[in-house]
Amino acid sequence: MTLIAHLVELRRRVAIALLFVLVGTAVAFWWYEHGLGEFIRAPYCDLPADLRYNDAEGDCGLLITDVFGGALIRLKISFIAGVVLSAPCWLFQLWRFITPGLKANEKRNGLLFVAASSALFALGAALAYVSLAAGLRLLLGLAGDGVIVALTAQDYIGFVISLLLAFGVSFELPLIAVVLNLVGVLSYAALSQARRWIFFLTIVFAAFVTPTQDPFTMLAMAGPMVVLFEGAIQIARIVDRRRARRAAIESFHDIADGEASPLDASPSELPEVRPR
Which of 11, 35, 167, 217 could be 124's S-S partner, Cβ–Cβ 3.0 to 4.6 Å? Predict the structure, then answer.
């Protein structure tokens, strides 16, 4: 295909992907009043009554301080949920654009990478949602007695989104280490020697990335990341062993790069040719 043909194909794929995102956003906009809004507010509303805002009837609620605040919050949540709901569709469009230039093994590795990265991101986001209530209880409880806590919808939604993204993206880092090992950039020996530094920097990274800055949320992120990094190191060990085994089978693997490989000058047998 020519460059223009590639650009036309890319424009078509992007247009289809945006259409799926639009449909997903519309579905999430309707879903907001049928459970999505309650799902997002649940960690806050599960807090004790003295740590959250309650109306005259005792129901939990978030504050909106401007006219367009409610509409913007609902659109923001609907768009993010629409991107997540339509992810299989727009990822398929991206995959269809890339696959014509890939080999069979590259397609297989690409599918494994997409599946693993999606699973790790979902795992991180789920862990963030589970630990959200505990982090809020700790932070809001530090205000002490005599203080009324009333969070605005903008602040709370922004906090929840940032926490989910921080956990989801952080859980991708061990996968990047595995990919670098597979392409030969990062060896098992280097990872094994730097294991203590990796674990220490993981804890420091979790302390800086977590929006809550509380020890509970930091440990909730750092603990699984340490386990995932250890799994990445063990995968690198297996990959390097297989790579060394294949190198041992190949001929001339012990010859230096600047040395010419020996040639076998003995004549080879020719197949017998029968006269017709």
Answer: 167
Mention every residue, 6+ apart, whose C-beta is less than 8 A from residue 270: none
Q: How many residues does the chain have?
A: 276
Rg (alpha carbons) of the chain, rounded to whole number = 27
Within the chain, how many helices (H) and strands (E) appear?
Answer: 10, 0
86-92 CB contacts, 8 Å cutoff, 24+ apart? 86/20, 86/21, 86/23, 86/24, 87/118, 89/17, 89/20, 89/24, 90/16, 90/17, 90/18, 90/20, 90/21
Residue 102, Cα to own-chain centre: how many angstroms?
Answer: 23
Which phi and psi (to 5°) does residue 256 adopt?
A: -65, 160
List the Cα angle 53/55/58 in 5-degree steps. 90
Sign of CA dihedral 33, 36, 40, 41: positive
Tokens 């076998």, residue located: 264
Coil vs helix vs strand at 54:
strand
The residues pairing with 152 across neighbouring beta strands, listed in sequence order, are 63
CB 210 within 8 A of CB 163: yes
Q: What is the pLDDT along the chain (276 residues), one digit of tens a residue?
A: 677 888 888 899 899 989 999 999 999 889 888 888 888 888 888 877 777 766 656 577 778 877 787 788 888 888 888 888 888 888 888 888 877 777 777 777 777 887 888 888 888 888 888 888 777 777 777 766 666 777 788 888 888 888 888 888 888 888 888 888 887 788 888 888 888 898 888 888 887 777 666 677 778 888 888 898 999 899 888 988 888 887 766 655 566 666 666 666 667 676 776 766
